[in-house]
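Researcher: Before we compare anything, I want clean individual predictions. No alignment, no superposition, just each chain on its own. First chain goes here; please echo the sequence and then give the C-alpha cells.
Model: Echoing the first chain and its structure:
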Amino acid sequence: MADKPIEVATYQPVLVTGATGYVAGWIVRRLLEAGATVHAPVRDPENAAKVGHLAAIAEASPGEIKFFKADLLKEGSYAEAMEGCGVVFHTASPFTISVKDPQKELIDPAVKGTRNVLEEANRVESVHRVVLTSSCAAIYTDAQDTLDVPGRCITEDMWNTTASLEYQPYSYSKTLAEKVAWEIAEAQERWRLVVVNPSLVVGPAVQAKPTSQSFNILRQLGDGTARMGAPKLGFGVVDVRDLAEAHLAAGYLADAEGRHIVSGHETDLLEMALALRPKFADQYPLPKKALPKWLVWLVGPLLGMDRKFVSRTVNVPWRGDNSKSIRALGMSYRPMQESMEDMFTKMIEDGYIKK
C-alpha cells in the first residue's frame, strides 16, 4: 500500500491490458474506485464469465469500464482501446511454470505482446506514460543469484543472465520482454516508461479461481499435497493489493522513473505455510516442517522441479532491495500473514480448496 492515496488523473481514460488477470483486477478496481474511465481490451468482451466481475466492480464504483476486443499477439489490435488514453498499464503476460512449448506459450506472448502494446503507444498521441508489469524474474533466476552479486542482494541495476529457453523459461520471457520495452521506450521521447518488478504475488483475487501460478502453490499447501512438509524454497513475496498501489504510483507520480523492485518480504515456501497454520491448521493439512534438501533434489523432477533449481534455491535465502519502491513510490507493505490468510480465505470461499 502507498503511504498516502495516489491521486489518479481522471480527465483521460486509462488502458489496462490483461484486465481479467490477477494483478490487473486490483489495478482496475483501484482505478474505478478513483473515478477513472478504464479501457479493458480482452479476447471476448461478451464473455460474462471472464469480464462479469469487472463490470460488477464498475457498477459499484464512480468510475466506468469499457471493454474492447483485442488479441495480444496481433499487431494493431490495441488501437481502438488505446485511443484517447493517457496512461497505459501493460500487465498482460502468462505466469505459468509447466509448459510444453516455452517459445509459443511464454516467450512469444511476453515479447510480441509487449512490442505490440508499446508500438501502439508510439502511434497514439495522447499516451504520455506506460507502466510495464515486469518481474523480479527479469533480475534473477534462482535464490542463489541474489547472493552471487555485490552486496549479496539484487537491485534494479541488475539483469537476469542465468535463465534461458531451456532453463527457467518463464524468467527468460520476463527478461526478454522488459528489454524490448526499454528498447522501444528509449527510441522515442513522447512517453515515459516506468517498470514495476514484483516478486511472487500473493493475496486475495477480485475474481474466482484466477490462473496465476501463486494459486497452484497455495492450493498444494492446503489440499494435502504438502502434508509431509514443504521445502525452504527461497523467494520474495508481495501482496497483490500493495502491488496495485505501486502501479498507480508508477502511473501517476510525476517523478516516477525506471525500474522498481516491489517486494514486501524475503521468505520461503515453508514460512508461507507456517503463516497459515494459526488460523487454518485445525481444518487443513498444512505442512509444519521442512523437507530435507536431499529429498527435494531426489524427487524434484517428479514434481516438475529441475534439480539445478533445487540446488540453487532450496535452503538458500532470497535477498532483494525494495528501498527504491519505498522511497520513490511511497510504498509500505502489509504483513505477510495478513496476505496469506486473506488469500487462503478467498480460495476456500471460491471452492479452490476443499476441507
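Researcher: Okay. Second chain, same rules.
Model: Second chain and its structure:
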Amino acid sequence: MRGLILDYGGVLTDHEQGEEPPLVGALRAARRHGLRTALLSNADGRWSPPPEWADLFDAVVTSGEAGWAKPDERIYLLTARRLGLTPADCVFVDDLAVNVRGAAAAGMVGVHHRTPAETLAELHILLGI
C-alpha cells in the first residue's frame, strides 16, 4: 500500500473537543513513511483543510468539485489518479459502510471506521503506521 485516503466528517471529526483528532496522527505517520495522502469528502463545492492540516494532504477531492459523490466508483478512481497511484495501492477510510463498499468496488482496500482505536489498529496492520 502506498496511499491513505480519509473521509472528513465522521472520521477526521471523531475526537474529543479540544484534542487533535487521532486520525490526524495517522496521517502524519503515513507522511513520515512516504505514503501519499488524500482527503475525500462528499462536501459541496471546494473545501480546504484547516491551515494546521495543509501539509497533510497531497490531494483534496470533494464531490462538489468532482461532480460525483461517494459511493460512485469514479470519485475513488479520480482520487487515486490525483495521488499518482492505482486504486489497489490505496487504503480508504470512511464511517459509512456504503462508501467503504464503493471504494472496494473501485479496487481499494476499505476500512470501516467505527472508533479511532479500531481504525488506528487496522491502519497499523495494513500500513505499518
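Researcher: What stands out in the second chain?
Model: The chain has a mean pLDDT of 95. Additionally, The helical segments are 8-12, 22-32, 63-66, 73-83, 97-105, 116-127.
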